[in-house]
Design a protein that fits this description.
single chain, 160 residues, alpha+beta, 4-stranded mixed beta sheet, 24% strand
Length: 160
Amino acid sequence: MSDDDVNPAAPTSPVRQLRLVVEAADYEQALAFYRDVLGLPEQAAFQGEDGARVAILDAGRATLEIANPAQKRMIDEVEVGRQVAPHLRVAFEVDDAATTTRALVEAGAEELAPPTETPWRSLNARLEAPAGLQITVFQELEPLEDRTTQPGFGTDGARD
C-alpha cells in the first residue's frame, strides 16, 4: 500500500524523507538497541576522522506529529497516567506492542508504562530508551478507515 492509497486526494509533498538525528553518547549501545532489538534495518553507515560514526536506520514511513500542550498532556495521561514527556518523543508503530516492549526492556529500556489501550484504538507503551529518547511503541488495533469515523478524528482541514 502506498501513501497515495491511504489518501488519494492528498497533495504530493516536496519533502522526500524525515530524518531524526540523535546524538548518542554510547553509540554502540544505542545502535544495538534500535537496530538489533527494535529491528530498524541499517540503510547506511559512515565513519570519519577522530572516531566520527553515524548509522542511518530505516524506520519505515515517517510522520511529524504536531501536538498542542493540551494534547501532549492528554497523551501522557492516557499512556502513563502522569506528565512525563519531554518536548520531543519518538513513536514507533510495531506489530506487537507487548512483545516489543518486553524485548526493549530486556535490552535496557526503562518501562514508564506498560502497553495500554488508548481511546484512539491503539496499544501504546512508553519507555525511556538509549540516547536519551523517550519513546512510545504502538500497535494499531483497528484500521485507519475505522478510526477516522470516530468522534474527534479526521483532519483539521475537514473540521473547518
